Amino acid sequence: xxxxxxLRSINLHxxxxxxxxxDIALFLHSKHMTLHYISNLNPKWSAQDKxxxxxxEDQVVGRDITGLSKSKWYQYSERxxxxxxxxxxxxxxxxxxxEDLFSACKAQYFLGEGIVCxxxxxxxxxxxLLSELLTASAVIVCLDGDxxxxxxxxxxxxxxRLVGCEVELLVVxxxxxxxxxxxxxxxxxxxxxxxx
Length: 196
Known about the structure:
Structural class: alpha/beta
Shape: globular
Number of helices: 6
Strand content: 15-25%
């Protein structure tokens, strides 16, 4: 596994002058994100990789902010194939599946308690997450609006229905990601989720 090097906390309340806050904020803004949406995961800065690093119970990953890396996401370590936007059990929860961690974090920020948003870190459902989803009260699949996301949603829908999970699809507009959606879109969706 790759090493992220020395990490510095990205904290607006106790700024570290060695963290390029303006570059990070501009990058996040370009992805329809803010530091508020990711703050619950205590993001760190890797100067070595020029990436925002998330050290979670599930994985340690970094998101390149330069656009120069061969891959958007660096994977430093992996305990499981997915990343929860909040570190709680999936049992008896409504679980929302997204492709990437930013989409999961934004959904978690607006949807709050009783819901756990999970990043697949791709478009496929792996066996370790499938076994956890069997204990969820419901699963909502919300992948990106491109061809890969749509194909992934249908594959995941079939798999979850085959094993008896209650599953629904949340389709984002064509060629957009869940993280691209405005706060009002998420608030409208949260009203629908409350009825599940």
